[in-house]
Amino acid sequence: MNQNIEKKRILTGMRPTGALHLGHYVGALENWVNLQDQYDSYFLIADYQALGDYAEDVGRIRDSVVQVVIDWLSVGLDPKKATFVVQSYVPEYAELTMLLDMITPLGLIRGNPTLKDEMARQNDVSMGFFNYPVSQAADILINKAHLVPVGNDQLPHIELTREIARKFNRLYGQTFPIPDALVGRVPRLIGIDGQAKMSKSLGNCIYLSDSSETVKSKVERMYTDPTRIRISDPGHIEGNVVFTYLDAFHNDRGELNDLKQRYMSGKVGDVKVKSILTKLINDTLEPVRERRNYYEAHTEEIREAIVEGTKKAKLIAETTVSEVRGAMNILDYEDLNNIRKAMGSK
Ligand code: TRP
Asked: What range defines the domain where residue 146 resides?
């Protein structure tokens, strides 16, 4: 029995720009691993979208495609359950982007708050970058996804996708489902240095590929409470990096609250809370490391995940794009064979 017929469809993705870290894990991947059992799931490696930022560093994208796939496999995304797609192998994504561009009001792009933020941080951006929210809408719509699991910052892009889908359906007939966003458990994990975001360029990451020793030394370097000199001084939780992470990684709320109480009343020190955190992170990463070892010894399975997934996704993309061309009444070869029809005569 093919259960996929019953299942709703998910599409989500990442731009391949480097190794994945704990921020990706708690913000997205952990959620994706659960979702792959319940949905017909498509995970996109958006290397074309990444070019919008890194056209002058294509080597980085190229190297990251396989690295991201290995990270995905390592956290437990399973190519038997889910479909991995490399965007650049499916030119239909580009074709649909161009067609959707035609019905997307410029004002919707200019007003996109995430895009505005990102543009404000750069001197100038490429047209490709400016257009990436539309290409993201195409990613989602080509797969006719019902649900898009993403981080908070991506919500404006899902809203745009909904608007484009509604407009397309109104102009050319019911074609696309209107997708919903689904936000992960920890929308944004701060860096180990306490900065707003864990990010490769800030050098404040714990990577999924870090060894247990590396995790230990990174946790030891974390900021805690600068006002606290002796263990017996009352500790502060607020703004304390270690406790922010404990909130993200501790499953036992009762035990965590107890630990916070003891920290605030000066009964437990930094060394102890850091060792608890190190253990929690390493417990999370241990199965990830084991899977990574497995796949690094079975590289043919990495290749197969990419090739088979992309093949399957390309068929879907071809079907959708041909439906879209039909809905938009774009001249096709059949019209040309029947040239009178092409010229609009009866
Ligand atoms: N913009 C997303 C990010 O940077 C990646 C992405 C590309 C995506 N296409 C998508 C996310 C489609 C969800 C749906 O993380």
From this structure: 9-190+299-344
On whether the CB atoms of residues 181 and 158 are closer than 8 A, the answer is: yes
* Number of structural domains the chain divides into: 2
- Residues 187 and 138: their CA atoms lie apart, in Å, by 24
Identify whether residues 120 and 23 lie together within a single domain: yes
Token pair of 254 as six digits:
């009762």
Contact indicator for 295, 233 with CB cutoff of 8 Å: no
- Distance, in Å, from the CA atom of 208 to the CA atom of 218, rounded to the nearest integer, reads 13
- What is the residue with the minimal CA distance to atom 14 of ligand 1? 12
**Best of 10, 15, 61, 68 to mutate for ligand 1, by most ligand atoms within 8 A of CB?**
15
Question: What is the tens place of the pLDDT at every residue in 55-72?
Answer: 989 999 999 999 999 999
The pair of structure tokens assigned to 225 is: 């409470």
pLDDT at 1: 46
18 contacts: CB under 8 Å, gap ≥ 6: 60, 64, 67, 200
Give domain status of residue 112, yes or no. yes
How high does pLDDT run on average in the chain? 94
Q: State how far the Cα of 148 lies from the Cα of 180, in Å rounded to an integer.
A: 6
Q: Report the C-alpha gap between 102 and 169 in whole angstroms.
A: 14
Considering the domain boundaries, does residue 242 fall inside one? Answer: yes
The Cα 205–Cα 210 span in angstroms is 10
277 and 139 assigned to the same domain = no
Residue 239's region, left for phi above 0, alpha for psi from -120 to 50, else beta, is left
Decide if 200 is inside a domain.
Answer: no
Task: Give the chain's end-to-end CA distance (angstroms, integer).
Answer: 47
Q: What is the DSSP letter of 235?
A: P
Q: Among 64, 90, 154, which is best to mutate for testing ligand 1, by the most ligand atoms less than 8 A from CB?
A: 154
The model's pLDDT over 268-292, given as tens digits with 9 standing for 90+, comes to 999 999 999 999 999 999 999 999 9
Ligand 1 pocket, residue 140 CB under 6 Å: yes
Q: What is the pLDDT of residues 224-266, one digit of tens each?
A: 877 888 888 888 999 899 999 999 999 999 999 999 999 999 9
Pair 250, 176 in one domain: no
